[in-house]
Amino acid sequence: MNSPSTELPRSMAIYEQFHHISRWGDGFDSNNTGSSAIVPADVGLKNKAEYISCEQVEPSISDQETNKPTDKIRRRLAQNREAARKSRLRKKAYVQQLESSRLKLAQLEQELERARQQGIYISGASDTGCFGLPGTVNSGITAFEMEYAHWVEEQNRQICELRTALQAHVSDIELRILVESGLNHYCNLFRMKADAAKADVFYLISGIWRTSAERFFHWIGGFRPSEILNVVVLQIEPLTDQQHLEVCNLRQSSQQAEDALSQGVDKLQQSLAEGVASDLCSGNYKAQMVDAIDKLEALENFVNQADHLRQQTLQQMVRILTTRQAARGFLAMGEYFHRLRALSSLWAARPRESG
Amino acid sequence: MQCQTGSRGSYVATTRTTAGEPLERIERLASENAVVIFSVSSCCMCHAIKRLFCGMGVNPTVYELDEDPRGKDMEKALMRLLGASPAVPVVFIGGKLVGAMDRVMASHINGTLVPLLKQAGALWL
C-alpha cells in the first residue's frame, strides 16, 4: 500500500489502487452518502455481493473519501450517460427492425392473397365443389395463365419487329405479313380466353390476369374496342375523307354494340341479385342456387360476345386502313398496352411513406 | 318434311303439329315486319340485342317465345335453323334471316347492318 506525502496525489494513488474495488464499493449507502443516489441500480446488486470483501479495505481509505467520490461520481455519471445512450440506440434499432418487419409482413400478406386468388385453381379448395371435376377447373385456368404470359412475350416481340420494319421502310408485302401476324395473335388470345371462360368466367371478368392499370379500363373481360380505336386513330393520321367517315362509323357502331352488351350484363346482374335474394329469411336456398348457376352460365356468353366484338373491330380496322396505316395501328395498340403494363409495375414499386 | 298448310297469306289455325309448322309460323311472322326478333323474356342476351336496335333508333317487333303457347316448338325449329344453341335471340330483317347476336354484331361492325335496315324501311336517313 502506498503512502503519498501530499493529499492530492495520495488520493489519486489510492484511487488507482482501489479502482476495481471502488466500482463495486460505491454502491454502499453507509460509506458514500453523497454518491449513493447516483449509482445505477444494476451496479448495486454486484456491490452487495462484494460487500464483505470490501469492508476490510474501507477503514484504511476512509479519510480519502471526500476526494474520491468527486472523481468517482464524475466517472459514474459518464458511464451512466454512455449506458443510457447505448440503451437508447439499441431501443431505436429494435423499433426500426419491428417497423420494417411489419411492412414486410404486410407485403407478404398481399402477395399471399394474390397467389391465393390465382393459386386457388391449384389448391382447388373451396371452388371445385360446385364443378364436380376439380382437375378440369384447375388446369383450365393455370393453362391460360401460362399461355397468356407467353402471349405477352410474343406481343412485345411483334411490337419491336413492327417498329423496326416501319423505321426501315420495308415493302408493303412484308408489312402485310406483319399485320396479318398481329391480327392472328389477337385471334389466338380470344381463342385462349374462350377456353378460360369455360373453365371459370369469373376469372376473366375479374381481370386478375391483367396488370392493375389495364384492369382500370377493364370491360367485360378485356379491353373496350372503341377506346382502342380512339388511341390508334390519333397515331395513324393522315386519313383520307373516306377513311375518316369509315373510322367514325366503326367507332359509333362499336360504341353501340358495347352499350348493348353492357346493358345485357346489367340486366344479368339485376336478375341474379333478385334470384339470390329471394326468400332470404327462410334460409333455404337450394332452388335459388340452381337458378343462379343457370344465370351465371349466361355470363360466359357475354364474355364470348365481347371478345367477338373485339375481334370484329380489329378486322374492320385492318380493312379500312392501308397496309402501312394498319401496321402503325398495331404498333400503336401494342405500345399502348405495353405502357399500361409498365405503369402498373412502376406503381407497384413506388416508394411509400412509412407510418 | 314440309307440310303444306296453304300459302303464306292464308294461314289457318289447326291442331296438327307437324314438323314444318313452327318453322312456317316463324317465317310468316318474320315477313310481317321490317325487323323481327324472337326472344325469351328472361334472356339477358335478348335484352342486349333489343337495346342494340333501340339504340340505333329502330323499333323491332319482338316475339317472346316463353309467352307463346307454341313457343317451345318454335324454339326447337330455330335451333335447327341456326344449327346451334341457344335458339334466342334470332333476328330477321326484311323477312330474311340475319342470325344470332354474333352475326348481328359482326354485320353492324362491318357496316352491312345499316344499309340492310334502310332497305327494309326500318331506318331513315
UniProtKB/TrEMBL annotation, chain B:
<comment type="similarity">
    <text>Belongs to the glutaredoxin family. CC-type subfamily.</text>
</comment>
<keyword id="KW-0963">Cytoplasm</keyword>
<dbReference type="InterPro" id="IPR002109">
    <property type="entry name" value="Glutaredoxin"/>
</dbReference>
<dbReference type="Pfam" id="PF00462">
    <property type="entry name" value="Glutaredoxin"/>
</dbReference>
<dbReference type="InterPro" id="IPR011905">
    <property type="entry name" value="GlrX-like_pln_2"/>
</dbReference>
<dbReference type="InterPro" id="IPR036249">
    <property type="entry name" value="Thioredoxin-like_sf"/>
</dbReference>
<keyword id="KW-0676">Redox-active center</keyword>
<feature type="domain" description="Glutaredoxin">
    <location>
        <begin position="35"/>
        <end position="98"/>
    </location>
</feature>
<protein>
    <submittedName>
        <fullName>Glutaredoxin-C8</fullName>
    </submittedName>
</protein>
<dbReference type="GO" id="GO:0005737">
    <property type="term" value="C:cytoplasm"/>
</dbReference>
